[in-house]
């Protein structure tokens, strides 16, 4: 389950493998840790330090969100796992320019293919135009020799996707393309929140699998940036986009509020709808099975998000091992 704490008057403590949640004039609520998959905190409720220790020890991620979006989201989870050999392999591949570029191209190639899922919301003409542009950019990607050029190709395709999406979403959502920090319209508000929770999910799994979430290949390491978590986020953005396109039909423009300082945000009354959606998304994350030999071509299937993330981590692990086994030109 996902636990949402969004009131300043709430206090949370930890006792005997259980979170104890106290609200004014309400009976205390007890939630066993073994039932909890994620905790999301808005604003500044009173949370005892023992709670953070317990969540870290149990490898349960917590996402801290500013009540009005004035600060960057923070993801808390356990520290680096003890599987040092895999982390050393990650560092060696990242420090080898040829290996790092090969892995960065793999991430982008997988992202390019992942658009097959979200393209289902576009018209046939829009799909054909996008696929033609993707084909050209994929050819350029295969020849690209530096990260900056690769990121430029990714940016071009993402811009084309969001431009097509802007032609498809109803005008009431005021969507004209991707914007953030702060988001200026309802769909961008949902995208920002969805991507934040996705990154938190990915970060925890990377750590549990023995990888360093801060040391990436496509996104370069920088202070405060979880580069590898961002690399993996690229693989699942299309699933978030596709799912949110359907979910927004359950909302109305009145489920959002605006401010000059904080942009567009979900209202407090609409948040439960979003988190029910997110819980279902985690359990039944959509994916396109067009390239799978085991599934019917063109079929949209689903599987738990954590399971899909671990599957991609396993592919990366084998990719790094394969690259290191090859003769090096360095």
Question: What keywords describe this structure?
Answer:
single chain; 330 residues; alpha/beta; Ribosomal Protein L15, Chain: K, domain 2; Four Helix Bundle (Hemerythrin (Met), subunit A); 2 domains; four-stranded mixed β-sheet; 9 helices; 12 strands; 50% helix; globular
Brief overview, please?
This protein is α/β, with parallel strands linked by helices and 330 residues long. Helices cover 50% and strands 15% of the residues. The model is unreliable at 292-296 (pLDDT under 50).
Show the helix and strand layout.
Layout: E1 2-5, E2 11-15, E3 18-22, E4 29-32, E5 38-42, E6 46-47, H1 49-57, E7 62-65, E8 74-76, H2 84-95, H3 97-118, H4 124-143, H5 147-168, H6 186-209, H7 227-247, E9 256-259, E10 263-266, H8 271-283, E11 285-288, E12 300-303, H9 305-325
Parallel strand pairs: 1-5, 2-6, 5-7
Antiparallel strand pairs: 2-3, 3-4, 7-8, 9-10, 11-12
Helix pairs in contact: 2-9, 3-4, 3-5, 3-7, 4-5, 6-7, 6-9
Radius of gyration: 21 Å
Count the strands? 12
Could you tell me how far the N terminus lies from the C terminus, measured between alpha carbons in angstroms? Answer: 48 Å
CATH homologous superfamily placement of the largest domain: CRISPR-associated endonuclease Cas1, C-terminal domain
- Compute the number of structural domains: 2
Task: Please tally the helical runs, counting DSSP H or I stretches of 4 or more residues.
Answer: 9
Low-confidence stretches: 292-296
Instruction: Summarize model confidence as the mean pLDDT.
Output: 86
In the CATH hierarchy, the third-tier topology of the largest domain is known as: Four Helix Bundle (Hemerythrin (Met), subunit A)
The structural class is alpha/beta
Helical proportion?
40-55%
